[in-house]
Amino acid sequence: MSTTDLTSQHNDPSFTSLWDELNWRGLIQVSTDPEALREAIDGDPITYYCGFDPTASSLHLGHLVQLLLLRRLQLAGHHPLGLVGGSTGLIGDPRQTSERVLNSRETVAQWVDLLRAQVQRFLSFEGENPARMVNNLDWTSKLSAIDFLRDIGKNFRVGTMIKKDIVAKRLNSEEGISYTEFSYQILQGLDYLNLYREYDCVLQTGGSDQWGNLTSGTELVRKTEGATVHAIGTPLITNSDGTKFGKSEGNAIWLNPELTSPYAFYQFWLNTADADVVDRLKVFTFRTRKEIEELGRLTEEEPYRREAQKVLAADVNTLVHGPEATRKAIEASAAVFGKGSFEDLDEETLSSVAAELPHATVPAGEHPVAELLVATGLSESKSAARRTLKEGGVSVNSRKVAGEDATVSEADLLHGRFALLRRGKKNLAAVTFEA
Fold first, then answer.
1. Residues that bind ATP, according to the entry (predicted)?
2. Structural contact between residues 4 and 321, judged by C-beta atoms closer than 8 angstroms
3. Is residue 333 included in any domain, yes or no?
4. Are 91 and 145 in contact (CB under 8 A)?
5. How far is it, in rounded angstroms, from Cα 409 to Cα 417?
6. Which of 102, 191, 308, 429 could bond 376 through an S-S bridge, CB–CB 3.0 to 4.6 Å?
7. Is the same domain home to 57 and 195?
8. Any binding-site annotation on 49?
9. Domain span holding position 373
10. Do 89 and 171 share a structural domain?
11. Averaged pLDDT for residues 135-152
């Protein structure tokens, strides 16, 4: 995985207040005392944190919102703590619908390492305000059940806990909620208390759907230490048509390139709707207000150019996967849209392209193009395929195919196993030849 270039990142100097910039970017949906937060964020350096639970082997787009907020605060001189939840990951925060399946301790420990490496890429560990990584297993593992109940649990009121949105929903569901998941908010509150005591941490960020867990920490610090600390809840990103952001055909868009390839990642951003692209530029890029407003103007006046989408896709892909992976993704995208050659793509990139297209796998050897058109769904029947071939409307690996009896052999394949079939200008499919 490529290292993120942190030196090119800057907050927008046209804003005299970071608090104002964060609001303009739409990053604050809910918070504790806004005026006190403005004073803290725009004042002397403070320590702040965000937690990431290892409930999967990779972070996804929802986490990217938090990672970039952490980075924006660090660029302003504040001190970030990146927390990976080795203990809370063993429990899992309550889901909207049903109880989580608990993962083994070994699996969670492996995921902690993977997520820590991902978080570290987005923060600087050098300079006057270097980031620190922490693991809540370091302090919770030392607590006995009696100490946890006496020293921490006594500060929580059940009546308040059951009013939290997610808990209330689960209590009213058929399955209900276990004591394990019910107690999650206490564990997260303990994180804040420990970080306040050890690092003088006074701000936690997280998604607005986690607001109940965020405020459990602010309340615990208030009750035990008599101190006022803060929380920011970022909005849950949704598309203008009401669909959930970051989902592609039911699958999350992961930051790990082995789970979501840089090409697929690039395509996801390139397909952003015109109505959403300006908001995405604000949240997910370090483009200035002036640059984003200009891209918004181009979207309104010349939407066919999709200039804002191209900038968004390139910026976020570079941020997550690096410039080289982005260059390859752009070349692959050009080939897909008929403005480049598939022959110029390396095997890994071509494999990523094939995975995103209608696809067929066939045995190694010579195959009639007509059969491949049917196998990939580009033609309904062999007779229809042969008519298209006769009319000259088919290309294989960016080369026009002549004749209705045309075949594809090993010599025609890219990297010895791929054939990209195009019918007309827009219909594209992939064939993998297996030995």
1. 247
2. no
3. yes
4. no
5. 10
6. 429
7. yes
8. yes
9. 357-435
10. yes
11. 94
Which of 353, 372, 407 is where one domain is finished? 353
Residue 190 has pLDDT above 70, yes or no: yes
Dihedral sign, Cα of residue 266, residue 272, residue 274, residue 280: negative
pLDDT at 238: 85
**Phi and psi, residue 91, nearest 5°:** -105, -55
Let me know: does 70 contact 50? Beta carbons within 8 Å.
Answer: yes
The DSSP code sequence of 383-395 is HHHHHHHHTT-EE
Condensed to tens digits (0 to 9), the pLDDT of residues 276-334 reads 999 999 999 999 999 999 999 999 999 999 999 999 999 999 999 999 999 999 999 99
Q: Which of 198, 80, 108 is nearest to 190 (CA)?
A: 198
Domain boundary among 308, 326, 353: 353
Residue 392 neighbours by CB distance under 10 Å: 11
pLDDT tier, 2 (very low <50, low <70, confident <90, very high otherwise): low
Write the burial class of residue 191 (CB in 10 Å: 0-12 exposed, 13-18 middle, 19+ buried). Answer: buried
pLDDT tens track for 195-212: 999 999 999 999 998 898
Residue 247 annotated as part of some ligand binding site = yes
Task: Decide: 421 and 430 in contact? Cβ < 8 Å.
Answer: yes
Query: Is position 184 annotated in a ligand binding site?
Result: yes
Measure the CA angle with vertex 320, ends 352 and 414; round to 5°: 20
223 is in an annotated binding site: no
* Per-residue pLDDT, 3: 60
Residue 7 lies in a domain: no
Give domain status of residue 1, yes or no. no
Phi, psi angles (nearest 5°) of residue 373 = -60, -40
pTM here is 0.92
Indicate whether 380 and 341 sit together in one domain.
no
- Tell me, what CATH number does 219's domain have? 3.40.50.620
Specify the number of domains making up the chain.
Answer: 3
Co-location of 283 and 323 in the same domain? yes
Average pLDDT over residues 401-414: 92
